[in-house]
Specification:
With about 190 residues, the chain is an alpha+beta fold. It has a domain of about 130 residues: 2-Layer Sandwich (Gyrase A, domain 2). The protein contains 3 helices and 8 strands. A 5-stranded antiparallel β-sheet has the order 2-3-1-6-7. It has a 3-stranded antiparallel β-sheet with strand order 4-5-8. Strand 6 and strand 7 form a beta hairpin. The chain starts with 19 loop residues before the first helix and ends with a helix.
């Protein structure tokens, strides 16, 4: 049998210390540093000016109106003065319109984007607007021209008056024109979205 020495052998060098508190302080320091960096990133993100290409929410209910077309007369607005009660389109068509059925409050996003090879303004309607637009398009689709058109009016001018063939669901729609430039589409998105 081996016998254990009755005493501890001598230790050479500095006494060993418990490093637990030191590790705990280091970990807490790293956590605090990460929280500070995240806070700065979040606060800077909220202070920056929004990019013009980002979706926007409407600033004004009257910024955009969706109205039924009652009559459409090509060339009526070609030379001023326009007939009272007629809203003019960019192509000179004069439109007599029904009441406002949806407006800027129902638009949750408006953005200019490239669709295939042409620029469009993409609109997303909120839930209430999606339901109202679906009902409106379902009813208008049953009508004969020009009553099967919906005028999209921005700042008192008809920017588009598409014919509707069937109900449009989902609340996603695009305003397009044959010759929209990027600047024109962005200007229109800004007018709708604020």
């Amino acid at each position: 049998m081996t016998q254990q020495p009755p005493y501890q052998p001598p230790q050479y060098g500095p006494p060993k210390r418990n490093r637990g508190p030191l590790v705990l302080v280091g970990v807490l320091g790293v956590v605090v540093l990460v929280l500070v960096v995240l806070t700065v990133v979040v606060l800077r993100g909220n202070d920056e000016d929004p990019d013009s290409s980002q979706p926007r929410t409407p600033r004004d209910p009257a910024a955009v109106e969706f109205r039924r077309v009652v009559t459409a007369d090509a060339g009526l607005c070609a030379s001023p003065p326009a007939t009272p009660g007629v809203v003019c389109g960019a192509d000179g068509t004069g439109y007599t319109l029904g009441k406002v059925e949806l407006d800027g409050r129902n638009v949750s996003k408006a953005e200019a984007k490239l669709s295939n090879t042409s620029w469009v303004v993409s609109l997303q309607l909120d839930d209430q607007g999606s339901k109202a637009f679906e009902q409106l398009t379902a009813d208008v689709a049953k009508k004969s021209p020009p009553a099967n058109q919906i005028a999209i009016v921005v700042d008192g001018k008809v920017v588009s008056a598409p014919s509707v063939m069937s109900a449009i669901t989902g609340g996603q729609l695009e305003i397009s024109a044959a010759q929209f430039t990027q600047e024109e589409a962005q200007k229109l998105a800004d007018a709708i979205g604020g």
